[in-house]
Design a protein that fits this description.
The protein is of the alpha/beta class. Helix 4 packs parallel to helix 5. Helix content is about 35%, strand content about 10%. It is globular and about 50 Å long. The protein has a five-stranded parallel β-sheet with strand order 2-3-4-1-5, sandwiched between helices.
Amino acid sequence: MAETRKKKVSAPERPGLPRVLPWHASALALVRNAWAGARMPHALLLHGPEGIGKRELARWIAGAVLCESSAGGPLDVCGQCASCGLLEAGSHPDFHLVTPEEDKQQISIEQVRAAADVLARTSYRQGGWRVVILDPAHQMTVAAANSVLKTLEEPGAASLLVLVTPRPSALPATVRSRCQKLAVRRPSEHEAIEWLRAEAGTAVEAQVLQFAGGGPLRGLGHAEGRFPAPDRPIRASAGGA
């Protein structure tokens, strides 16, 4: 009788803890000041060029808001508490990242409704926050955007919705007007190349950054061979978040 082999199932990838990128400092200062002054908004609209790490910034804000050390103290990601451990493992019950489903270009109303449920329910720990990130927010369907608007109009206590997009003008005006806008700047060429060289651990030519449309995270992908170098520089609006 032939032996039946079980298919090996690999463990899910641990997303890890978010990190602060050097050019995010000015945007983070605004968020930290809002937290320190008990003026944290219920919705943020992170916008800026692609390839500069907007999603990583959104994840850091989420992690800091959820971090137990931030309760009654400065906004930070301690990396030691139970909440940070759950976020690092990708299993935090109060955090939800919404992106288009595989093989689809848009965020659906079903995804937005599931995210709204996260914001509406009670946190797993007393007094804890719930955080949802929508990225890229401009790729929501019309029905999904209308559902988000309802959530924005009736925000729950200690809840944060973060919309991430390189094209804020593509969002409905009614959605934009209910979010606190947070512009994320593109680093200078010198700053980006220095960061790329440190991350790649090798010399990185300025042409790599040019190919990436000025986005250092996409440039890192080219330097590490994760993205093929195009025949000509790509537009600045192309690339990763």
